[in-house]
Amino acid sequence: MENNQSPLTTRRLVGSVYTRWGREDCPSNGTELVYSGIAGGGWYGYTGSAVNYVCLPHHPEFIKGDSSGGDATIYGAEYQTNYFGQGLYDNDVPCAVCRAVGKSSVHMIPGKINCYGNWHQEYYGRLAANANTHKAGSEYVCVDHVAQFREGGGSNANGKLFFKVGAKCGSLPCPPYYDMAPMSCVVCSK
């Protein structure tokens, strides 16, 4: 089988997708915006809530004829601290789904702001998750170091929440970690 595509064309066909939390745009480093949206997920206090954060589109579409109600619920997300940036507390979290053109792998590394070896930095920031004291679990996500908020979303409506993550000494060696030091993160592609 012959490959009649140029290396440049083949490179444009390859790409990995990732979510940039805290921004509605993609880095200007060869990535393309798939869509921008609003961060969301399960309610922070429900024991059965979905764990993952999701990037909900600004213009949802619904299937006609589906009845209302359900046993699971999705909520918008908000910052629960100014740690991610001044004036962000209680504001809604924007997100962007980005495609790293020509890159086949994307990975978030907690505790780093630079990528290893020949991996390419998509963005870096601060590690976020739900609070330990809340019933609902969450995943760790990387909020951009220049986080933004969604205009008009400054009420304390809760939902899926973003808190800063601290490193806890014990099983985690200190040094090189420091007890409850806020964790950084980087999203890398290759």
From TrEMBL:
One of its GO terms (cellular component) is extracellular space. It comes from the Eukaryota. This is Short-chain collagen C4-like. It comes from Mytilus edulis.
